[in-house]
Amino acid sequence: MAPVFKAAFTALCCLAAAASANPIASHHRHQQRTPAPAAADSQTRECPASGEKQRITAPESWNVYPQKPDISRGPARGFEVDAFNNQSQLEQVFVFRGIPKQAKTCTLGWSQNNHTDRVFLVDGAAALVNVRPLSGLPTPSAGGDAARGEGITYAAIEPFDDAKKEDELNPDFTLWDDLDDDWDHIAGDVDCAEELAFKAALRDPQVKSHIYLESDEHNGIWLEYSC
Question: Which of 40, 85, 108, 131 has its CA 20 to 30 A from that of 54?
Answer without folding.
Answer: 131
